[in-house]
Design a protein that fits this description.
about 475 residues, 2 domains, mainly beta, about 5% helix, 2 helices
């Protein structure tokens, strides 16, 4: 690695004239010792990683994703996202007329804070069968968590997570469950929807009463398969009241009424920057629509003819962009972001961040040298750039104090004893953080070893990242 040192900016001293005796600088003093000058913080080290940054091979599949993330913070009830037909609806513009059939995913990620009278907000997801035959919707995997049950906590960079008990945020926890093939018990294995009927997949609260701070959220992620066409809608409604004044969840009929007569939920998020804009601040916007692609499979190889990835020279690295996006392509020129098949005009033009997209990456490592080499694999978050200003990925010590990746990855490989291993590891990484390897393997001369990395991009993270293969210097 090449290390560059930034010189600290020295402020211009202020001076004061004391009784005509001298001109002296005013200095700062600690509370504990007025005679001790505060030591300035050392300049951060900028580290430029030497090696190649490659675009990720492969592409997104064609599975559609119901992608409900706008408004992220809900204060007024209404329609979050509807793919129903607009006919017969009071606000036709709120309905995108996109039926799902076969495999599709569903992602819904919303928060609420300080609602009127601390009312409980309910999040509903409705599926409707517009046809004349019964439709069966299989819930292959699925999980939904409140922020109060999966708070945003600080964790070590790596935590072994085979039991799924390491998490930092509700979206992080939900996609980690699905990565391990979980369907929570509260969700049925199958929804049977008669012709012309609707069923609720989700009718869950986001309570704020009795919390230390009246802030809460819910993140939900499902993999579904439908035997016929279904429309889907995510909706927000405050709790109804029982006769005794207690809260109750909305009924199917009440949800249907909101769908038919309701308007958009609010407040609306920031309007995104159009794709053809050439200047000004880049605003990605929040996603509300159907995005195209739920999985990206890639064989990380030298070229299409070879089925191996030659490890880099000792001290060098090869990095592959992960969740690269407009304004953050890391010199690859590759925008991996899923395109929107349908969307609301005031929401994101692309599914920035690819939340819920599964990356299934195979690394057939090959040591062509005459010596045993130690190879490492690391998922890391360099400083965000579109083009690499220093010719390589940039990191820094200390890292910036923002967590940019919080999620679980699945590792499959053959260890040095020849035994197959499968591990789930939770990552909690700050932007620009210099990390220990996620995986370290010795490769004998002329040998090959397959490593597989599988991650569902977690909603509580910020792209882009890279997957880096490095050969250690001896």
């Amino acid at each position: 690695m090449k290390i560059k040192f930034r010189q600290p900016k020295v402020p211009t001293p202020l001076f004061i004239l004391l009784s005509g005796l001298a001109i002296i600088p005013i200095v700062s003093y600690t509370h504990s010792n007025l005679n001790a000058q505060v030591t300035p913080k050392p300049a951060p080290q900028e580290i430029v990683q030497s090696g190649e940054v490659r675009p990720l091979p492969g592409q997104l599949d064609s599975i559609p994703v119901f992608n409900s993330n706008s408004p992220e913070w809900i204060k007024t009830e209404g329609i979050l996202l509807s793919t129903f037909a607009p006919e017969g609806k009071k606000v036709p513009a709120a309905h995108l007329n996109f039926p799902f059939q076969g495999r599709f995913d569903l992602f819904a990620h919303h928060y609420t804070h300080t609602p009127k009278d601390l009312q409980t907000l309910y999040l509903g997801v409705m599926l409707h069968n517009p046809g004349k035959k019964t439709v069966r919707v299989d819930v292959l995997q699925g999980a939904s968590y409140l922020m109060q049950d999966a708070p945003f906590v600080t964790l070590p960079p790596y935590v072994e997570n085979n039991d799924g008990k390491a998490f930092a945020g509700p979206g992080n926890r939900a996609v980690s469950d699905v990565l391990r093939g979980v369907r929570q018990r509260e969700f049925p294995a199958r929804l049977v929807i008669p012709p012309g009927a609707s069923r609720m997949l989700l009718n869950h609260p986001i309570p704020v009463r009795n919390l230390e701070k009246p802030v809460n959220g819910r993140s939900s992620f499902f993999r579904l398969r439908s035997s016929g066409k279904v429309y889907v809608a995510s909706l927000a409604m405050f709790a109804k009241k029982n006769a005794d004044g207690s809260d109750r969840g909305p009924t199917l009929q009440e949800w249907q009424t909101l769908l038919t007569t309701g308007n958009f939920a609010g407040p609306r998020d920031k309007t995104p920057t159009p794709p053809d804009a050439t200047g000004g601040k880049l605003i990605y916007g929040r996603v509300a629509g159907v995005s195209g692609g739920s999985q990206w499979k890639a064989d990380l190889v030298d070229n299409l003819k070879d089925q191996t990835l030659t490890i880099p020279q000792p001290g060098k690295a090869i990095s592959y962009g992960l969740a690269t996006l407009r304004g953050g392509r890391l010199g690859t020129g590759q925008n991996q972001t899923a395109k929107m098949l349908v969307r609301y005009p005031d929401t994101a033009y692309e599914a920035h961040g690819n939340y819920g997209v599964e990356y299934k990456l195979s690394l057939p490592l090959s040591n062509n040298t005459q010596e045993t080499q130690t190879v490492t694999v690391t998922l890391e978050t360099p400083l965000k750039e579109d083009k690499l200003a220093q010719g390589g990925l940039r990191f820094r010590k200390p890292s910036l104090d923002f967590p940019f990746f919080r999620g679980t990855v699945k590792l499959s490989y053959i260890d040095e004893t020849g035994k197959p291993q499968t591990r789930y590891v939770h990552l909690w990484h700050r932007v620009g953080q210099v990390l220990e390897p996620l995986l370290k393997l010795p490769l004998k001369p002329g040998s090959q070893s397959m490593v597989k990395v599988d991650v569902i991009y977690p909603p509580d993270s910020t792209p882009p990242q890279v997957l880096t293969v490095r050969t250690l210097e001896k």
